[in-house]
Design brief:
By secondary structure, the chain is mainly beta. The chain folds into 3 domains: 85 residues, Sandwich (Immunoglobulin-like); 80 residues, Immunoglobulins (Immunoglobulin-like); 93 residues, Immunoglobulins (Immunoglobulin-like). The protein contains 1 helix and 24 strands. Strands 19, 20, 21, 22, 23 and 24 form a 6-stranded antiparallel beta sheet that branches. Strand 17 and strand 18 form a beta hairpin. The longest helix has 19 residues.
């Protein structure tokens, strides 16, 4: 009886060992092992400069039959939006950033209930504003000059002196504008600054204008018949010149009678005729020239006595205009 019980015990142990003994690499406990589903992307972040451009990332899948790409901003573009390959390289292209700040976008790769994100970051443009000339010099008569601006963003001209005019006060990107400087009537040179501001930086243009003086009048002579001659040197140019005269004021001015001519004289000898003078009359005569700075008279006053043949009626009747030689 004991022998039979012993044999039965051995059989039971053998059965138990064959059913539960021995390890297995199959985590499911069966013979059909299947690995987990997986999606990965590399790299997970991409940086672009303001100019934009193209770069790539790789999508790698395990046990995922298909995947899609979505979730990106309008300024981001990908060459494929879906795939079924276990490993694929995707090209991402970014537009140029014309704003003044950085920007980001997500790219989402999804499949088999899984997803991964790629972060796209783009820097703003560097606003290195520059101009074709940082300093300009103008003559006493003023004038115009053109300036070219190099800038990626918006620009504004914010400050300039009253004697300077600009053709445009704002713009975007590369452009140009005209500087106009008015004649200098101060008698001295003057300086000013034009400030051009970009989004993040600024630049200045230094403006210098030569100073002017009232005209110089020399070598004045006038005959008893009213024919005259004198020389003018002027900077800025004389715009009016002639002879002023009076029967009573021994130092006549332009407030007395005058024979005048308008023009632009910088260095010239002029001649003319004081007409319609009264006959047999004593006149005090001075040459004059006028520009933006002031009025100058000849240093000498010429006294003439008209003859019987000199036509005319009364003093202080405006004579005919002079002429320039």
């Amino acid at each position: 009886m004991k022998k039979a019980f012993y044999i039965l015990s051995l059989l039971v142990i053998a059965v138990l060992t064959s059913c539960g003994g021995g390890g297995s690499d199959d985590p499911s406990g069966g013979g059909g092992y299947t690995s987990k589903s997986m999606i990965s992307v590399n790299p997970t972040s991409i940086m672009f400069e303001s100019e934009g451009g193209s770069k790539t990332f790789t999508v790698t899948c395990t046990n995922v039959s298909s995947w899609t790409i979505s979730g990106y901003e309008s300024w981001v573009h990908v060459n494929v939006t879906a795939g079924s390959s276990n490993s694929e390289t995707v090209t991402v292209t970014v537009d140029a950033n014309t704003s003044s700040s950085s920007r980001t976008s997500k790219i989402i790769v999804s499949g088999g209930g899984l997803s991964k994100e790629i972060t796209i970051t783009q820097n703003p443009p560097t606003d290195d504003i520059s101009v074709s000339s940082s300093s300009m010099t103008f003559g006493v008569d003023g004038g115009e000059k053109t300036v070219s601006i190099t800038c990626k963003l918006d620009w504004n001209i914010t400050d300039y002196p009253s004697w300077v005019k600009v053709s445009s006060s704002s713009g975007t990107g590369n452009s140009s504008f005209t500087i106009t400087v008015l004649p200098n009537d101060t008698g001295t040179s003057r300086t000013g600054t034009i400030t051009i501001k970009g989004t993040t930086s600024s630049v200045t243009i230094s403006i210098t204008q030569e100073g002017g003086t009232a005209p110089t009048v020399n070598n004045f002579s006038v005959s008893s018949s009213g024919s005259y001659s004198f020389s003018i040197t002027a900077s800025p140019a004389a715009t009016e010149y002639g002879v002023c005269y009076s029967t009573s004021n021994q130092t006549p001015t332009v407030d007395d009678s005058k024979a005048s001519t308008s023009g632009q004289i910088t260095n010239q000898t002029v001649t003319g005729q004081v007409s319609e003078l009264a006959s047999k009359t004593i006149y005090y005569c001075r040459a004059y020239a006028k520009n933006a700075v002031g009025t100058t008279y000849s240093s000498n006053v010429v006294t003439i006595t008209t003859t019987n043949e000199t036509p005319g009626s009364d003093d202080n009747i405006p004579p005919s205009a002079a002429k320039k030689q």
